[in-house]
Design goal:
Chain lengths: 748, 347, 246
């Protein structure tokens, strides 16, 4: 019965499931719970960080701090309990700073924890600690050290080197070649909600409220780190105040909080200060991208070479695959990429929104613009000439691809045909006006997931899965998916997520949550329908009593006889007659078999218009138009909002964000939201986003490829290319700040 | 933050008395003081809350100018009819700074006392800062110095106990410098008036001394002379965001015009020095001249004369020159005329 | 609607069978997103449980020192007076969040750099993180919890028009900056009603009762950072309320 092969568009919720809770301040984030632990006993922990970039801790003078008001405990490398944790397993379980040794690898590393009755007391006492170090020489910059570049020890999802065809031969026969270096900076995620943990022990069992993108990851990592059974740990996190990758890993503060709770016998709250989010919870590494492209006179790419070096922490390698898009965004006869790391005494690098593709497209898509100009081709036409019909990096088909429609639809909406190809030729008052475009791309990911659904009394439903909602709309689309299974209104569905006792779901990263969790819900509702049908068949009071399971269909909250639709029972009545007892079913789903024979990727085309002030050199992004091929759009409001948010991140990438490292001390100097610039409302012009909404059912039965990350790809280069079109100045180092525009050489 | 006693003052005399205690500080809007207390840079033993003093009026001065009480909030000052019509340069500068919330809190007197945003000052984990720890050196000189000074700084090397290349971050102060404001203060020894040019200090050999205000003195009011630049004023601010960001450079330009001829000028730069940068020679070079790009460029060259940049901030010198020319150009076109045109709107 | 804040109430279904997750671990490993040890490793870990418990985490005890001096204070929040005893260092934001369990006001930076803590103090929007609780004594404080028409809003009709507009226009994603955005927007509309200016007003030559154009809304809402980037929807929400009250 009831085969669910083709995606049926689910009825959409009119507003976010958790929306009223969010606009009224009732939604509780990790640090905001005051039960079920004894609130009166709650203590506050504050992390003390190193102030040198490399060396060892010689001594900690804690005399004054121990006597400070309200102090309960101070954990240092000299007294912290020894943990039986195994070696780290990056990038899964990070190399953490848990006071197990006295080594300092970067400036800002957690080296002690002060626990007090209030946060003010903990912070004040922390300032009274006198820490002496034996310092070692430190390396805090990498760009001038290309000779120290080496292959990464653990490149992660892709190999760090890849070659196809003969690039040297390709360049030799190219009519036009460009070769340039493009630099992207160190960035920090800075979700608005700082990382936060409340930990309390009940005997040997550990409970935590934790701001995380991966409750089951924190659960497993805590168990492993503290050497307790995994079933002894519970992680709860009903709403997350943004994550963008930094909350995808468990960082040091989480076990430190649990250790402090154990040591003091109290519930302990540990919230990172904003300035503590620049190092101890990861960041995107800086990438230096040397890109060489060669093409025939008619614009066919013959060779693409992309060599990257990036910073990696002395503690742990992480590879930002910024050469990734060069391998398969366009069809080229030959291709060569390398990605190498240079060790520095800085905090660990990690996934940040569209790892690889964000900096990769930011670099490659300027290079493509430069080559198009040299070929005297329109940038869109140049991309169409090199359209990849198949995945060139694996020589296999895409599950689906409609990028051509993205180019044409976005170009039309934007008015690309009005672009002047001559840079610096359009002015309005004191502003130079320019248009630019780029391609957006992000792979579609999917993992195994489980879900539980229940038919409740009154025609209501419950759905649960151990996933997370970071503002991504997970609650909303879970309600929709569950409701669509029984054909009921999504407003009748209660959703629960963010609790590690729920059936397991993957990390909310890699744009995979909806693509993973919704098929599991679909499976669960299929199972539920079978159970409900069987319940009706067995129920002598049901009009459907005695029918065969295959004859029963469920929709609009009712069970029907397929062969005689007037023979029907309502779900509410069925449950009521059966003692108002909920009927529960579990479901699971995993990636399809085809995933190794096909490549699934989302696509987009982004166009930007900028105005650059001739004297202040400030840039205003007046408008961005993006059209995306992301498979099925699950909820119009939350989905488009997320794509717009990605574009805002891309504008930020283009113009604003950069962590500046002090060249002597290796500290991030601008570790605040006043000096680490992310866009404010006045920085964002009109953003027009459309999606093709063509289901990719070869990828998953819902046809949806995930949209969390693609928005930040491409648009940065579109802005950079627009600035060039406006000014005739090519800035190849992000962020493109007023001083760089002023200093860049123009065409004249 | 260190513990402190909190006291609320109800009259200036009581405030001055309480403020005379060792380690006492006045709390007005708190937007800078509380911020710095949290960072561990300010640690008063007593906070004297002066927010309830009756110092919240803006009134016309019999001399034709205006008296701004110390506790007038930045947003109220910018919106005040006398200010927005007679001193639009000040309204523009105020509204270019901070955020609406901060402007609702910050006061005129507090803004005068705003301390530098230098990273090496605000982060106590950097060992060298002569402002924070006199004699410790200046980490900014060999550090990341994009937001630092190019004029009037003290640079005797990064290890010297006198060096300081910090800037004053205020926008309001730049306009007040160009307008020729005066500051009325009162202490246990009585009242005195400090000219704006004398109020903020260059670092000299004592970078930790930032103003002429004595620790026991309370700012009562700021007075502005009769308005000369009501019709021709422009505050230009170049920054990394379009709002809610400190200036890379800023220019306050006011012109008193007689037809096409400049009768007198008020000109000050922000973001380039330890205090709002004013050079009377530049103003003199403008007086009596017909407006022209050459005349404006000459004033700009005088303003930036002897400027010295560092690894990351040399751009400020040329950017400030371009900013001076642009601000003077817009001011010369007329406050009401340029506002509302694409010329007046920054891109 | 779930009961927000009662998250511990539902003990749940049993852990799913581990074998079903072997595949997931492999997937994650390939995608570079894998996070934990395989099921087999987990079983091995489970078998050494007892050793783990036995050694556990030894207590790290210090003599607990007496707490800081506190003073009595009465705060008027959302129309109600609350008597507390606070350390003078306490910010209004910490008083609301830690002492009054009014966690709607958010701490995003604690330094007046993000706006997540915005509340209305005597009707004016301010950063509660830079406002000392004692300095706010005597003022009428309105937080996000005090905007709706009743104390426990469940329906759209219970909401303040600005809250309803944010809901309708999806003016948020993660929701963490949202209470500050909404309080700020309510303050901005009041400021606009009494003719307050912005730099956009002056740059566009409107120094008397400027219209609330999109550029005005953007500038006036620039004291509230939204890292999710929901700015266009925030502008739409504010625009809708301006339009409705015009």
């Amino acid at each position: 019965m009831m085969a669910d092969t083709a995606p049926t568009p689910a009825k959409q919720l009119d507003h976010r499931y958790e929306g009223i809770a969010k606009v009224t301040g009732k939604a509780k984030y990790a640090a905001e719970f005051s039960q079920p632990f004894p609130k009166a006993n709650l203590a506050y922990a504050y992390i003390v960080q190193s102030t040198i970039p490399n060396g060892t801790i010689a001594s900690v003078d804690r005399y004054a701090a121990d006597l400070a008001p309200g102090v309960i405990a101070i954990l240092t490398p000299f007294n912290a309990p020894k943990l039986a944790q195994g070696p780290p397993q990056p990038p899964a379980r990070r190399n953490l700073s848990l006071l197990q040794d006295k080594d300092v690898h970067y400036n800002g590393q957690p080296i002690a924890v002060v626990v007090a009755k209030s946060l003010n007391e903990a912070k004040a006492a922390a300032r009274l600690l006198t820490i002496k170090y034996v310092t070692k020489p430190a390396q805090v910059s990498f760009r001038e050290r290309p000779g120290d570049a080496r292959w990464p020890k653990n490149p992660g999802k892709e190999p760090a080197g890849n070659h196809r065809g003969d690039v040297q031969a390709g360049f030799a026969k190219s009519a036009v070649v460009i070769e340039q270096t493009y630099v992207t900076p160190i960035q920090h995620h800075n979700p608005m909600e700082p990382h936060a943990t409340i930990a309390w022990w009940e005997g040997e069992k550990l409970n935590v409220y934790d701001a995380t993108q991966y409750i089951s990851g924190v659960k497993m990592s805590l168990a492993k780190t503290l050497d307790i059974p995994v079933d002894y740990v519970r992680v709860i996190n009903p709403v997350v105040g943004g994550g963008f990758g930094s909350k995808g890993s468990m960082w040091s503060h989480v076990p430190l909080c649990a250790m402090a709770a154990k040591a003091t016998g109290r519930p302990v709250k540990l919230v990172l200060e904003r300035e503590q989010m620049f190092g101890p919870v990861g960041g995107r590494p800086s990438t230096v991208n040397k890109i060489k492209l060669g093409a025939s006179a008619d614009g066919k790419l013959l060779a693409m070479q992309h060599d990257v070096i990036m910073n990696a922490s002395a503690m742990e390698d992480f590879t930002e695959h910024s050469a990734g898009p060069t391998k398969n965004l366009y069809m080229s006869e030959s291709n060569s990429v390398t990605e190498k790391v240079v060790e520095v005494n800085l905090g660990v690098s990690t996934f940040m929104r569209a790892p690889g593709e964000a900096p990769g497209t930011a670099a490659l898509e300027i290079a493509m613009d430069e080559l198009a100009e040299k070929l005297k081709m329109d940038p869109v036409q140049f991309r169409l000439v090199n359209y990849a019909e198949n995945d060139p990096s694996h020589d296999r088909p895409w599950t689906d691809k409609h990028l051509r429609e993205c180019y044409s639809q976005a170009a039309e909406r934007f008015g690309w045909s009005k672009r002047s190809a001559t840079p610096g030729s359009v002015t309005e008052g004191n502003a130079l006006i320019g248009y630019g475009m780029a391609t957006a791309t992000y792979p579609a990911n999917r993992s195994a997931a489980q879900a539980v659904v229940r038919m409740l009394p009154g025609g209501r439903m419950f759905v649960g899965s151990g996933t997370q909602d970071l503002g991504t709309g997970t609650y909303t689309i879970m309600a929709q998916q569950a409701a669509s299974g029984l054909g009921i209104d999504p407003s009748l569905v209660e959703v629960k997520l963010g609790d590690s006792t729920l059936p397991k779901a993957p990390v909310s990263g890699g744009s995979q949550s909806s693509a993973s969790v919704l098929p599991a819900i679909q499976d669960a509702t299929t199972q539920l329908k079978l159970k409900l049908a069987d319940l009706a068949i067995a129920d002598i009071a049901s009009p459907l009593h005695g029918l065969k399971t295959l004859d029963i269909e469920i929709k609009e909250g009712k069970l029907f006889n397929k062969n005689n639709p007037s023979q029907a029972d309502s779900l509410a009545d069925l449950i009521a007659r059966n003692g108002n007892k909920p009927v529960e079913a579990m479901g699971s789903a995993e990636p399809s078999e085809s995933k190794d024979s096909m490549t699934s990727t989302s696509w987009g085309a982004v166009f930007a218009e900028v105005a650059v002030d001739k004297d202040t050199h400030m840039v205003k992004v007046r408008r961005v138009v993006g059209t995306y091929d992301i498979g099925t759009l699950l909820n119009k409001k939350t989905g488009l909002n997320q794509l717009v948010g990605g574009i805002v991140w891309s504008i930020s990438f283009a113009l604003h964000e950069e962590a500046h490292i002090d060249p002597v001390y290796g500290r991030v100097v601008n570790e605040s939201l006043a000096e680490y610039h992310v866009p404010v409302n006045a920085d964002i012009g009109a953003i027009d986003v459309t999606v093709l909404n063509i289901p990719d059912i070869k990828f998953n039965p819902i046809g949806s490829r995930g949209i969390g990350e693609i928005g930040i790809t491409g648009a940065a280069a579109a802005v950079a290319n627009a600035i060039y079109n406006a000014t005739g100045k090519r800035v190849r180092e992000y962020p493109i700040t007023p001083d760089k525009i002023m200093a860049a050489r123009g065409l004249a | 933050m260190k513990s402190f006693n909190y006291e609320r003052a109800s009259a200036p005399e009581g405030a001055i008395h309480a403020g005379a205690a060792k380690g006492a500080k006045f709390l007005a809007g708190g937007t800078n003081l509380v911020d710095l207390m949290k960072y561990g840079i300010e640690s008063p033993s007593t906070l004297v809350d002066i927010n309830h003093l009756e110092l919240k009026q803006v009134v016309a001065n019999p001399d034709g100018g205006v008296i701004i009480d110390a506790l007038v909030r930045n947003s109220d000052l910018a919106d005040h009819p006398l200010i927005k019509t007679q001193y639009p340069l000040l309204s523009q500068a105020l509204l270019s700074g901070a955020s609406p919330q901060l402007r609702n809190m910050a006061t005129t007197g507090g803004n005068l006392m705003q301390r530098t945003r230098c990273y090496y000052f605000t982060d106590v984990n950097f060992p060298a800062c002569n402002k924070r720890a006199p004699g410790s050196g200046c980490a900014a000189i060999k550090g990341y110095n994009r937001i630092h000074a190019v004029l009037g700084q003290t640079d005797k090397g990064s290890t010297s106990g006198e060096s300081c290349i910090a800037t004053n971050p205020s926008d309001m102060n730049v306009a007040m410098a160009a307008l020729g404001a005066k500051i009325e203060v009162e202490g246990p020894k009585g009242k005195r008036t400090i000219s704006f040019a004398d109020f903020h200090k260059l670092p000299g050999a004592t970078p930790w001394i930032e103003t002429a205000l004595r620790p026991d003195e309370l700012i009562i009011a700021v007075t502005l002379p009769p308005a000369k630049f009501a019709k021709n004023a422009y505050y230009l601010k170049a920054r990394d965001r379009n709002s809610y960001a400190f200036a890379l450079i800023s220019v306050a330009a006011g012109l008193e015009m007689d037809g096409d001829t400049i009768k007198s000028a008020g000109l000050a730069l922000g973001g380039v020095a330890h205090k709002p940068w004013r050079n009377l020679e530049a103003e003199k070079a403008l007086a009596g001249k017909a407006t022209s790009p050459e005349v404006f460029r000459r004033a700009a060259e005088i303003m930036l004369r002897d400027a010295k940049g560092y690894e990351h901030n040399t751009f400020k010198i040329e950017m400030a020159k371009q900013g001076v020319v642009r601000a003077l150009t817009l001011a010369s076109l007329g406050t009401s005329e340029t506002q509302g045109t694409s010329e007046g709107t920054q891109a | 609607m779930v009961e927000w804040g009662s998250e511990m109430s539902v003990p749940f279904c049993s852990e799913p069978d581990g074998e079903e997750f072997g595949q997931e671990e492999k997937e994650l490993e390939k995608s570079g997103l894998h996070f934990e040890l395989s099921r087999r490793r987990f079983m091995q870990t489970a078998s050494v449980i007892s050793a783990g418990i036995a050694t556990g985490l030894p207590g790290v005890s210090t003599a607990e020192t007496p707490g800081s001096k506190t003073q009595a204070i009465t705060l008027k929040v959302n129309g109600k007076s609350a008597s507390l005893s606070l350390d003078p260092r306490t910010s209004l934001l910490d008083a609301l969040r830690e002492s009054m369990d009014l966690t709607g006001s958010k701490k995003g930076c604690d330094h007046g750099q993000c706006g997540a803590c915005t509340v209305l103090l005597d009707g004016r929007r301010v950063n509660s993180c830079l406002t000392l609780a004692f300095a706010a004594e005597g003022s009428e404080i309105t937080t996000i919890e005090g905007l709706a028409k009743n104390a426990d809003p469940k329906e759209i009709s219970d909401l303040h028009p600005m809250q309803a507009a944010f809901l309708e226009h999806d003016g948020y994603q993660c929701g963490y900056c949202t209470p500050g955005q909404i309080c700020s927007a309510v303050g901005a509309i009041e400021e606009h009603k009494r003719g307050a200016l912005s730099i956009v007003s002056l740059h566009t030559g409107k120094s008397d009762h400027p219209e609330m154009t999109d550029d005005e809304i953007k500038e006036r809402m620039s004291g509230n950072i939204c890292r999710c980037g929901a700015y266009p929807n925030i502008v739409a929400a504010v625009r809708a309320v301006v339009g409705a009250s015009a």
